[in-house]
Request: fold
Amino acid sequence: MNAAHLFTCAAVILSASAKSSAGPNPEPSLSGSFAFDFAIGFGTGVVSGDSEELVRRHASTVTSENSLKPAPLRPDRDTWNWKNADAWVAWAKSLGKEPIGHTLVWCYMQPKWLVDLMEKKGISRADALAWQDNHIRTLVGRYRGEIKTWDVVNEALADKAGGSDLRDDPWSNLCGEDYVIQAFQSARAADPSARLLYNDYNLEQPDKRARLFRMLDHLKAAGLNPDGVGIQGHWTLGSPSIGDIEAAIVEIYAAGYPVHITELDVSVYDWEPGANLQRRDFAPASDLAYEKLPDEIQQRLADRYRDIFRLFLKHSDKIERVTFWNVDDGLSWLNNWPLRGRPNHPLLFDRQQQPKPAFQAVISELSKEAAK
Ligand code: GLA
Reply:
């Protein structure tokens, strides 16, 4: 019998039998339930109403989703647009949630003027790196002491083996790996006590992990070892396998990096091999789409979340945090990707902010853990 889980279980039962002060939802709090295992978060902008109540009730952290990305912050080379960023940090604090910063450098959601300059070689390598250094020092410095964890570099690694370890993007094309090394250096200098993470997807694939470990070794050699690795967790009903997820968690932790599950969601549409992910528009007549989730798929989603959380609980010593990528189904980016306008149902709460069978499945895994 695990005493910590027994205690948690009692708290879960108590909170399940009490009405939420926020409204009619009697469901137990996720962050309260998993308090002895890992932190729980949502990646979201400022939300209100029932979605905000879900944040209040179920999370101990919130990740900034798009609010701190370079594109909205940097309308031009020397200007900062702090309005939304400051509002987001103030909102997180007003709810008593730890704000997590995302992301200092990424190939997407960069200001268009910067990408144009980099692609047309209208900016030198040295000037691009100087801009990045100033960007990171200013942003991390502004929220020093308030934002204690940052996704420093997002998605730097190539998807396929055989070429460069880095993906083909404006930053790597102009600066090579130096932009990754410098990003950690600038963030470390701006806030020596912040927890600095590297964040990516497909780390469940052994060859992408090999590229990850090589990059981490270079950071370590430069004295800039990250404080953890973010496994994004944009998964589907069928993939990746639980075995592949487990290998990623175990190997990344064994290499010395606490694991953060940073962007968890489970698409109810499998990404068939060869699917054209560049095609954006949803064609209701020919594309598979569930306006309302059929019972059978709802059950598959619950089973999948149960298996995922069973694994997370097994490795809770290695996992610091599990963050869902948005709060409820209506807010998910997957309603517009890869097909714009196709309804998806990837989270624990539906469009009416009600817990789905997947929520119950996750909570009941915890009760089983307590009974061991
Ligand atoms: C990536 C990024 C996130 C977000 C998602 C899609 O995973 O890290 O910030 O943009 O894509 O919403």
Observations:
- Strands lie at 39-43, 61-63, 98-105, 149-154, 195-200, 228-231, 234-236, 259-267, 319-324.
